[in-house]
User: Fold this.
Amino acid sequence: MSELAIVYWSGSATIGLTARAIAGGAAVAGAEPHLLDAAKLSDRDWALLGRAGAILFGTPTYMGGVAAGYKAFLDATGDAIWLERQWQDKLAGGFTCGIQQAGDKLATLTSLAVFAAQQAMVWVGQEAIGAPVFPDRAGLNSSGTFLGLAVESAVEGKLQPGCEASARLFGARMAGAMARWSR
Assistant:
């Protein structure tokens, strides 16, 4: 099985719930997902990030960008990992959330994609097409964002059904990309 590291920082429950839904979709599709809290990474977690076939980056969108708690994780990769190209050719993808349906989540995903490019990683976006293109897919990829996964805030401790389905599909997509990339 290919190891998929899902490293996230959650200021509220939404990003954690999204990470778990992504992991569920990835596991069903044949990957071995690992959930890592960006604020609590141990040496073992950093080793896992080094050997994983793919890394998904997850952060809420705060004030139009990556949350400070997550930015600290990104900045921690600056010396050895970036200089030595330790993550070169790993697959990467990103996910975020915000209060508004669209808001400035695309700015956060763009920042994560640029980070991955600086690490020489290969970015994988979302493929799900929802309504209104396909009316029977109401709620799926409701923001219409393809650079990565952008979900709405959880309600009463649960992801909205379309957001949860989109997260599971995104996890399955990453697992499929990992299988294809490892051939």
Notes: The helical segments are 13-28, 43-51, 68-76, 80-83, 105-118, 161-181. Strands lie at 2-8, 31-37, 54-62, 65-66, 91-98, 122-123, 149-152. The radius of gyration is 15 Å. The first helix runs from residue 13 to 28.
